[in-house]
Amino acid sequence: MTVTFQLNGEDCRFDGDPMTPLVDILRQERFLTGTKAVCREGFCGACTVHVDDEAVPSCLKPVGLVHGCAVTTIEGMSSGNQALHPLQVNFEAADAVQCGMCFPGMVMSLSAFVRDNPHASRPEIKAAMVGNICRCTGYERIVDAVAECLDQARKAGQLVGGIHV
Protein backbone atom coordinates (compact mmCIF):
# COMPACT_ATOMS: atom_id res chain seq x y z
CA MET A 1 0.00 0.00 0.00
CA THR A 2 1.14 3.55 -0.73
CA VAL A 3 0.77 6.11 2.04
CA THR A 4 1.29 9.79 1.28
CA PHE A 5 1.47 12.61 3.80
CA GLN A 6 3.19 15.90 4.50
CA LEU A 7 6.33 15.52 6.62
CA ASN A 8 7.70 18.77 8.00
CA GLY A 9 6.06 20.59 5.12
CA GLU A 10 7.29 18.31 2.35
CA ASP A 11 5.54 15.55 0.44
CA CYS A 12 6.35 12.10 1.78
CA ARG A 13 5.51 8.70 0.32
CA PHE A 14 5.81 5.28 1.93
CA ASP A 15 5.29 2.05 0.03
CA GLY A 16 4.92 -0.78 2.48
CA ASP A 17 2.92 -2.23 5.34
CA PRO A 18 0.43 0.42 6.52
CA MET A 19 0.67 -1.03 10.05
CA THR A 20 4.35 -0.03 10.33
CA PRO A 21 4.71 2.31 13.31
CA LEU A 22 5.23 5.90 12.22
CA VAL A 23 8.29 6.17 14.49
CA ASP A 24 10.02 3.49 12.40
CA ILE A 25 9.32 5.33 9.15
CA LEU A 26 10.62 8.59 10.61
CA ARG A 27 13.81 7.09 11.99
CA GLN A 28 14.67 4.32 9.51
CA GLU A 29 13.27 5.61 6.23
CA ARG A 30 13.51 9.40 6.66
CA PHE A 31 16.50 9.49 9.08
CA LEU A 32 14.71 11.91 11.42
CA THR A 33 16.27 10.63 14.62
CA GLY A 34 14.98 13.35 16.94
CA THR A 35 11.88 11.21 17.39
CA LYS A 36 13.00 8.56 19.88
CA ALA A 37 11.77 4.95 19.95
CA VAL A 38 12.04 4.21 23.67
CA CYS A 39 9.15 2.33 25.28
CA ARG A 40 7.16 1.50 22.12
CA GLU A 41 4.06 1.40 24.34
CA GLY A 42 3.04 5.06 24.26
CA PHE A 43 3.73 5.97 27.88
CA CYS A 44 7.15 7.67 27.82
CA GLY A 45 6.44 10.47 25.32
CA ALA A 46 9.87 10.35 23.65
CA CYS A 47 8.35 9.56 20.25
CA THR A 48 5.75 12.37 20.28
CA VAL A 49 5.11 14.11 16.97
CA HIS A 50 2.32 16.33 15.71
CA VAL A 51 -0.24 14.82 13.35
CA ASP A 52 -2.47 17.58 12.01
CA ASP A 53 -1.26 19.76 14.91
CA GLU A 54 -2.18 17.19 17.58
CA ALA A 55 0.57 15.69 19.76
CA VAL A 56 0.54 11.89 19.37
CA PRO A 57 2.91 9.03 20.26
CA SER A 58 4.33 7.92 16.92
CA CYS A 59 5.15 4.45 18.28
CA LEU A 60 1.41 3.73 18.47
CA LYS A 61 0.44 5.39 15.19
CA PRO A 62 0.47 3.07 12.17
CA VAL A 63 1.74 4.97 9.14
CA GLY A 64 -1.45 4.07 7.28
CA LEU A 65 -3.40 6.32 9.66
CA VAL A 66 -1.43 9.41 8.64
CA HIS A 67 -2.39 9.13 4.96
CA GLY A 68 -3.31 12.64 3.83
CA CYS A 69 -2.20 14.19 7.14
CA ALA A 70 0.47 16.73 8.07
CA VAL A 71 3.17 15.24 10.33
CA THR A 72 5.66 17.48 12.14
CA THR A 73 8.69 16.17 13.99
CA ILE A 74 11.11 18.02 16.26
CA GLU A 75 13.23 18.68 13.16
CA GLY A 76 10.33 20.61 11.65
CA MET A 77 9.61 22.84 14.66
CA SER A 78 11.70 25.83 13.64
CA SER A 79 10.00 28.45 11.52
CA GLY A 80 11.30 30.95 9.02
CA ASN A 81 14.80 32.07 9.90
CA GLN A 82 14.48 30.86 13.51
CA ALA A 83 16.79 27.95 14.21
CA LEU A 84 14.81 26.82 17.26
CA HIS A 85 11.23 26.90 18.53
CA PRO A 86 10.82 29.30 21.52
CA LEU A 87 10.32 26.29 23.83
CA GLN A 88 13.64 24.84 22.72
CA VAL A 89 15.36 28.15 23.46
CA ASN A 90 13.81 28.26 26.93
CA PHE A 91 14.63 24.62 27.68
CA GLU A 92 18.25 25.42 26.93
CA ALA A 93 18.23 28.63 28.97
CA ALA A 94 16.68 26.85 31.98
CA ASP A 95 19.26 24.05 31.70
CA ALA A 96 16.35 21.62 31.39
CA VAL A 97 18.11 19.35 28.89
CA GLN A 98 20.59 16.77 30.05
CA CYS A 99 20.77 13.47 28.15
CA GLY A 100 18.41 14.58 25.37
CA MET A 101 16.28 11.45 25.24
CA CYS A 102 13.06 13.08 26.46
CA PHE A 103 13.71 16.56 25.11
CA PRO A 104 12.21 16.19 21.59
CA GLY A 105 9.04 14.53 22.89
CA MET A 106 8.67 17.12 25.66
CA VAL A 107 8.96 19.95 23.13
CA MET A 108 6.43 18.31 20.82
CA SER A 109 3.91 17.66 23.62
CA LEU A 110 4.36 21.00 25.32
CA SER A 111 4.40 23.07 22.12
CA ALA A 112 0.91 21.81 21.33
CA PHE A 113 -0.08 22.58 24.91
CA VAL A 114 1.24 26.17 24.92
CA ARG A 115 -0.38 26.82 21.55
CA ASP A 116 -3.75 25.86 23.02
CA ASN A 117 -3.15 27.28 26.54
CA PRO A 118 -1.22 30.56 26.29
CA HIS A 119 -2.11 31.57 29.86
CA ALA A 120 -1.38 28.25 31.53
CA SER A 121 -0.52 28.10 35.21
CA ARG A 122 2.28 26.00 36.69
CA PRO A 123 -0.17 23.28 37.81
CA GLU A 124 -1.64 23.19 34.28
CA ILE A 125 1.84 22.90 32.78
CA LYS A 126 2.62 20.02 35.16
CA ALA A 127 -0.63 18.28 34.21
CA ALA A 128 0.24 18.66 30.52
CA MET A 129 3.50 16.81 31.09
CA VAL A 130 1.72 13.60 32.05
CA GLY A 131 2.78 11.05 29.47
CA ASN A 132 6.33 12.40 29.20
CA ILE A 133 9.02 10.81 31.31
CA CYS A 134 12.38 12.41 32.17
CA ARG A 135 14.83 10.54 34.32
CA CYS A 136 17.59 13.14 34.41
CA THR A 137 16.41 16.62 35.31
CA GLY A 138 13.39 16.31 37.49
CA TYR A 139 10.53 18.30 36.15
CA GLU A 140 10.83 21.73 37.78
CA ARG A 141 13.33 23.09 35.27
CA ILE A 142 11.07 21.94 32.45
CA VAL A 143 8.08 23.66 34.05
CA ASP A 144 10.24 26.76 34.55
CA ALA A 145 11.18 26.73 30.85
CA VAL A 146 7.56 26.45 29.69
CA ALA A 147 6.38 29.15 32.12
CA GLU A 148 9.18 31.48 31.02
CA CYS A 149 8.38 30.87 27.35
CA LEU A 150 4.75 31.80 27.92
CA ASP A 151 5.71 34.82 30.03
CA GLN A 152 8.14 36.11 27.39
CA ALA A 153 5.57 35.70 24.65
CA ARG A 154 2.88 37.51 26.66
CA LYS A 155 5.22 40.42 27.46
CA ALA A 156 6.26 40.75 23.83
CA GLY A 157 2.77 40.15 22.45
CA GLN A 158 4.23 37.42 20.27
CA LEU A 159 3.01 34.21 18.79
CA VAL A 160 3.83 30.89 20.43
CA GLY A 161 3.02 27.93 18.26
CA GLY A 162 0.85 29.93 15.90
CA ILE A 163 -1.38 31.84 18.32
CA HIS A 164 -1.14 35.37 19.62
CA VAL A 165 -0.68 35.48 23.39
UniProtKB/TrEMBL annotation:
Top-level division of the source organism's lineage: Bacteria
Annotated Pfam families: Fer2, Fer2_2
MF (Gene Ontology): 2 iron, 2 sulfur cluster binding; metal ion binding; oxidoreductase activity
Domain 2Fe-2S ferredoxin-type: 1-77
Keyword vocabulary terms for this entry: 2Fe-2S, Iron, Iron-sulfur, Metal-binding, Oxidoreductase
Name the UniProt record assigns to this protein: (2Fe-2S)-binding protein
